[in-house]
């Protein structure tokens, strides 16, 4: 059975890694990005480069997108020569961006209104898992499209969940990233107070590793934080956006979110000191001041 031709819209940190895996796996891949120069490494691998999202959706069997926030996700779909301009009956669009539920539902309705098929599929994981095909994919929407896209998901991720109707994937992703953000700030506070109290940061991490609160994130990020290595795998500005969207979700369903609110303020402080484009673990620099 021949592989479908695929498109990828948005080739930032995550999109470039996922699109690159599809190219390497032998999928005929067409890419587009707002800043065209970011497509060059994928072009060198053999990907085609399109001039507009409309061109991609019109020429590929399945089109994936991964953009940075709700505004950019909407722009790719509703903007001039966007996805919606190229959607016709049977065209398939999978949005892997992390957005709020309202944005995902709005995009899904617009795509379906023109006869297209829509799946939201945000991912849990950052640059390393994306490069290694170890993402967790949180799909919701058209189940037949999910099944058709599964060979691609198997290249990009280690497990795919189908969560039901459009919106469920967005909600799940915000919950997961909210918990991740809270745990990161907790680690920062622990390291900050421990070091100020005379403890060695590496000793703190070793004790954490041996106890019940050990986690892959702590094991990966803790030593880098202590070394001042904040090379971006998941930018702080995106983590703050996700926590803010999770707080909005809490407002909608009437759930108090005191820990998320405090976490949001910590990430905002990180952005205020110029760490927005650094890894989200750079919130440590704001917390320990």
Number of helices: 14
Q: How much is the radius of gyration in Å?
A: 20 Å
Percent of residues in helices: 55-70%
N-to-C terminal Cα separation, in Å? 58 Å
Fraction of residues in β-strands: 5-15%
Mean residue pLDDT: 97
Secondary structural class: alpha/beta
| Strand elements, count | 9
- Largest beta-sheet characterization: 9 strands, mixed
Order of helices and strands: EHEHEHEHHEHEEHEHEHHHHHH
Shape: globular
Which consecutive residue ranges, at least 5 long each, have pLDDT under 50? Answer: none
List its salient traits.
14 helices
Descriptive account of the structure:
This protein has 14 helices and nine strands. The chain has 289 residues and is an alpha/beta fold. Strands 1, 2, 3, 4, 5, 6, 7, 8 and 9 form a nine-stranded mixed beta sheet that branches. Helix 9 crosses helix 13. The longest helix is centred in the middle third of the chain and has 29 residues.
């Amino acid at each position: 059975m021949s592989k479908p031709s695929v498109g990828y819209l948005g080739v930032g940190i995550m999109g470039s890694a996922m699109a690159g895996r599809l190219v390497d796996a032998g999928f005929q891949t067409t890419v587009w990005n707002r800043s065209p120069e970011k497509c060059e490494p994928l072009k060198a691998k053999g990907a085609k480069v399109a001039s507009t999202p409309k061109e991609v959706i019109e020429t590929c069997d399945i089109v994936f997108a991964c953009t940075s926030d709700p505004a950019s996700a909407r722009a790719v779909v509703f903007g001039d020569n966007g996805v919606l301009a190229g959607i016709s009956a049977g065209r398939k669009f999978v949005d892997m961006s992390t957005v709020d539920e309202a944005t995902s539902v709005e995009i899904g309705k617009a795509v379906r209104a023109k006869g297209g098929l829509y799946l939201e599929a945000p991912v849990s994981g950052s640059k390393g898992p994306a490069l290694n095909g170890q993402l967790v994919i949180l799909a919701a929407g058209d189940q037949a499209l999910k099944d058709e896209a599964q060979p691609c998901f198997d290249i990009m991720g280690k497990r795919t969940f189908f969560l039901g109707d459009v919106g469920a994937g967005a909600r799940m992703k915000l919950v997961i990233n909210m918990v991740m953000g809270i745990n990161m700030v907790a680690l920062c506070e622990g390291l900050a107070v421990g070091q100020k109290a005379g403890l060695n940061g590496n000793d703190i991490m070793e004790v954490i590793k041996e106890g019940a609160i050990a986690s892959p994130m702590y094991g990966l990020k803790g030593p880098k934080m202590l070394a001042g290595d904040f090379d971006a795998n998941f930018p702080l500005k995106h983590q703050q956006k996700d926590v803010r969207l999770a707080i909005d979700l809490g407002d909608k369903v009437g759930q108090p979110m005191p820990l998320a609110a405090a976490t949001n303020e910590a990430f905002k402080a990180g952005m205020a000191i110029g760490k927005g484009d650094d890894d989200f673990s750079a919130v440590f620099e704001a917390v320990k001041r």
